[in-house]
Amino acid sequence: MKRVYNFNPGPATLPLEVLKEAQAEFLDFDGSGMSIIEISHRSKSYENVHNAAKSDILELMGLGNDYDVLFIQGGASLQFAMIPMNFATKKNPGFYVLSGTFSSNAYKEAKNLGVGEISASTKEENFCRVPRQDELSINSDAAYLHICNNNTIYGTEFHYIPETGKIPLFADMSSDMLSRPVDFKKFSLIYAGVQKNLGPAGVVIVVARKNFIEKSLETLPTMLRYDTFYNKNSLYNTPPAFSIYMVGKVAKWIKNCGGLAEMARRNSIKAKILYDAIDNSGGFYRGHAEKDSRSLMNVTFRLPSEDLEKKFVAEALENNLSGVKGHRSVGGMRASIYNAMPIDGAQALADFMDKFRKTNA
Ligand SMILES: *Cc1c(COP(=O)(O)O)cnc(C)c1O
Fold first, then answer.
1. Whose CA is nearest to atom 5 of ligand 1?
2. CB 69 within 8 A of CB 206
3. pLDDT value for 1
4. What is the mean pLDDT of residues 335-352?
5. DSSP-derived 3-state class of residue 171
6. Average pLDDT of 307-331?
7. pTM
8. In whole angstroms, what is the distance from residue 61 CA to residue 195 CA?
9. CA distance 78 to 67
């Protein structure tokens, strides 16, 4: 068996221990004689998986009884629409910080409904940084301020929590959820497609203050209302059991490693290894993100020419370094170094970068 270092942005690398555990219990889950994808979502065995995943997520985030965890399908992209449908009106629009592709897509959904406003944008600078606090404008009648905490494509991340006064703060944390301790209580609603940092594709975790999700507009379709998921413990209809099971295992793995503080320690070491390789390359590698907006999860950089970039991707793969090609809107390289990427993986990529530069500069 050959495993590579997987730098893909999502679906992305998962802890090997977790994959092995799932493999070992696949054919006979919890003594049921069935796999987790064959058992009833109404069975006791499944219910334990479902509820343990929820409570482990809340525990890792340091959140109490005033928050709940929902499991919803449709990807983070459906949250872009569900949020304005559930919370924004023409009188009380949602305000959006545009810091990359996904936050722009989120804004588009609200705008299509006639309930979205722009709070700030760094589009003119090709999203090389997140807006500063002093650039945010939020009307007092805003329903919420929406940010994307980590911009997966551009490789930038919020390193501060916007101060919004009485206005509720919502965040898309798809690509940095549970990667470091954050004062999550400052947020009224957080969502994350789990296929970046927490599991396989198929489910979105929504962590929200209960008073935001216990009552939705009566006119909304059942599956687009947060209260449908809240009132039925995300079991109104068949949940994506395998994805939730894997997220639960990843949450346990994070707890066993030492929680979010330990994730942050590892993630900053990996990020430093790669940003140092960029900064110490004499200009051969050029980072896309401004230094104080640099993401700990997605490291984006360019090479001197597109030909060298093609060569870099091909030779990296020969060295077992997979998935380093950047997104077409930024070009160049992107190394995604989520929780499950070992420090050795980041070091192997930095060593390769060094070697490649010496032979091609
Ligand atoms: C990948 C990603 C999305 C889109 O997620 P889907 O689950 O594919 O809809 C949204 N936001 C961020 C920050 C992402 O990284």
1. 76
2. yes
3. 83
4. 98
5. strand
6. 97
7. 0.98
8. 18
9. 21
